[in-house]
Amino acid sequence: MNVLVVGNGGREHALAWKLAQSSRVKDVFVAPGNAGTAADAVNVDISVTDIPAVVKFAKDNDVGLTIVGPEAPLVAGMVDALQDAGLRAFGPSKAAAELEGSKVFCKNLLRHADVPSADYRVFRDAESATHYLTERDDDPVVVKADGLAAGKGVIVCRNRSEALIAVDRIAASKEFGEAGNRLVIEERLVGQEASVLAITDGRTLITLPAAQDHKPAYDGDQGPNTGGMGAYCPTPLVTDEMLAGVEESVLVPTIHQMKRNRRPFRGVLYAGLMLTKGGPKVLEYNVRFGDPECQPLLMRLKTDLLDVLDAAVDGRLDEVGQLEWDPRPAVCVVMASEGYPGSYEKGYPIRGLDEAARLDDVKVFHAGTSIIDGQVVNTGGRVLGVTALGDTVAKAKLLAYQAVKCIRWEGAWCRKDIADKAITVA
């Protein structure tokens, strides 16, 4: 079978790499891909937002399954367009993808489904949000742009002053464009964050091992939010008992509520959780594999990924059974361009990739890279996801950073404390 992966980040490189290992796969195409997918698959020069071109390519090249990686084409209805053309696609419909595409829709659905989450208010303009903040107690809050903002539209505020600045950035200055046409202000939850992803065909759920992302830019969870500076899997913060509870009180009620709303959900349901003293609460939902959680998850997966995604598309996920996992934990460290998550310079040659690749149990997943004049260069903010397996989280971390030390380009940087929370718990 020919398979097409839509996207150009680390998640898509991991998907293409894992799918290429299937004995059932002939060619793996990635649209548009990056320098890493060019080595592990076949890149196709099609933008992730060009839905007609993706549909045409899938038809012309006998693609048996298309996996849509990023949120933007899912929210725009790429899966619907592929299915309307008689093609098989993994991912939620446009209507179901609103679970990630609109924070307001998500919060309202969580309330109706009685899923534990933070208390919130919705506002349509900066003036009403400002009035609300000045009238209430000066407590910590989180201010969120309603629409997609590449993981940067969530601003955690310690006090009213920071919240007022966040409202201005989102709703008045429109720093995130139309994503800020509405905004959510919610109570700030306290605890550790964790990511629980599940693959579903709308009836059956396969919950994956819990992971932990590191969204703030700098060590010690300081600095602005990013798309994710690293992740590890599994996390000892989520016990088997807690994971079963999340499935029962979070994932299943959400899927049932989506069905009641006539938006049946198929694909990856990703719950971003805060592990509070009162139990896990949902911070947000994503409707696709997380990036960078996907990288350590797929590094550990031993079951044929195509078999799982195939079954999900056909509505027979109940036939798959238990997935097989490498018992060793995996750690992914994101290497970023200087200036990220703000503006950054592109086009610097990346050295040491071959040296890192020679290390056992290491895979360097590419995100913001391209090949220019025969050289791999940085073209994005998050550039590489250096991922390693180890007998313990500490050993996986050590090996991942050993590989990071092999790789250099001008301005390259990373957090130095990825997975330390797991090591502290252990």
From TrEMBL:
GO biological process: 'de novo' IMP biosynthetic process; purine nucleobase biosynthetic process
Enzyme class: ligase
Gene3D superfamilies per UniProt: 3.40.50.20, ATP-grasp fold, A domain (3.30.1490.20), ATP-grasp fold, B domain (3.30.470.20), Phosphoribosylglycinamide synthetase, C-terminal domain (3.90.600.10)
Reaction(s) this enzyme catalyzes, per UniProt: 5-phospho-beta-D-ribosylamine + glycine + ATP = N(1)-(5-phospho-beta-D-ribosyl)glycinamide + ADP + phosphate + H(+)
E.C. designation(s): 6.3.4.13
Protein name from the UniProt record: Phosphoribosylamine--glycine ligase
Highest taxon listed in the record's lineage: Bacteria
Family to which this protein belongs: Belongs to the GARS family.
Matching Pfam families: GARS_A, GARS_C, GARS_N
Cofactor(s), names only, from the UniProt record: Mg(2+); Mn(2+)
Pathway the protein contributes to: Purine metabolism; IMP biosynthesis via de novo pathway; N(1)-(5-phospho-D-ribosyl)glycinamide from 5-phospho-alpha-D-ribose 1-diphosphate: step 2/2
SMART domains xref list: GARS_A, GARS_C
Cited HAMAP family: GARS
Coiled-coil annotated spans: none
Entry's Gene Ontology molecular function annotations: ATP binding; metal ion binding; phosphoribosylamine-glycine ligase activity
UniProt entry keywords in alphabetical sequence: ATP-binding, Ligase, Manganese, Metal-binding, Nucleotide-binding, Purine biosynthesis
Organism expressing this protein natively: Aeoliella straminimaris
Residue stretches making up the ATP-grasp domain: 107-314
